[in-house]
Amino acid sequence: MTLPAINALVDVVLMDGEAYQSRVEDMTGKRLTVAAPFGVNGADMPKLGTSVELAWVAGDRRQAVDVRLVELSKEQPPRWSLEAVSAVRLQTRRNYVRGGGGENVEVGKDGTVFRGRVIDLSEGGVRCRLHEDRFERDDRVDLRIALDDETIAIRGTVLFVRRDPENDAFDVIITYETSEHMGRAIRGYVLRREMEERRRARESVANAG
Predict the structure, then answer these.
(1) What are the pLDDT digits (tens) for 36-89?
(2) Distance in angstroms (rounded) separating the CA atoms of residues 36 and 85
(3) How does pLDDT run across 102-149, given as a tens digit for each residue?
């Protein structure tokens, strides 16, 4: 898989999870010049050195690469210079960005609260591990999930329960519908976690060398 060609339409995904449309204007090696993404306001403008994600469609597959912002041009129209810092990968995400894991979660049912850990989550649902066998498909539950310094509270529906005998626990999948604000918070959190994990992995490889 290769980087997008000149004139390819791309999405620039910032750390908060918001995607902005752009186009590749030039490319030399691992450095791409793209038109300043449409709709980014001053408050959301990333600083030089910030890692973002570049995503595009090649054929019928969506691909992505991690890039670092290395230059902001002052010419008109303005452009961003981005340097690829990872290999190109297929985006296997379905409807939502999914990730995370390890966050504290509280699941409330009929006035009783059960505490567990998140396995992964997205804007559309969460998979969590609990030690109590108290849930059935289609149960309506109240969720509280801790994301960094923010806790989200949302009403959801149990989709699936699976016993995990190795951990003497139960994996519970709960779906929900989010507001735009809450969806953006979850999406941004998951992408930040994903970028941070890839950064640590690159640093680990570099230190090992």
Answers:
(1) 887 777 667 888 998 888 988 776 677 889 999 999 987 788 899 999 999 998
(2) 19
(3) 999 999 999 999 999 999 898 888 989 999 999 998 999 999 999 988
Report how far residue 187's alpha carbon sits from residue 173's, in angstroms, rounded to the nearest whole number.
18
Give how far Cα 48 sits from Cα of 38, 83, 98, 139, 193, Å: 18, 11, 27, 47, 20
Task: Tokens for 146, please give them.
Answer: 């801790």
In a 13 Å sphere around the CA of 154, the CA atoms on its Cβ side amount to 25
CB 48 within 8 A of CB 26: no
d(CA 123, CA 8): 28
Quote the radius of gyration of the chain (alpha carbons, Å): 20
What is the token pair recorded at 142? 């109240």
Residue in the structure block whose two tokens are 């591990």: 129
One-letter amino acid for residue 26 of the chain: D
Separation between Cα atoms, residue 31 and residue 159, nearest integer Å: 44
CB-based burial of residue 172 (10 Å sphere; 0-12 exposed, 13-18 middle, 19+ buried)? buried
What is the residue-wise DSSP string for 19-43? EEEEEEEEEETTEEEEEPPTT--GG
Backbone angles phi, psi at 180, to 5 degrees: -60, -40
The rounded distance, in Å, linking the Cα atoms of 156 and 133 is 18
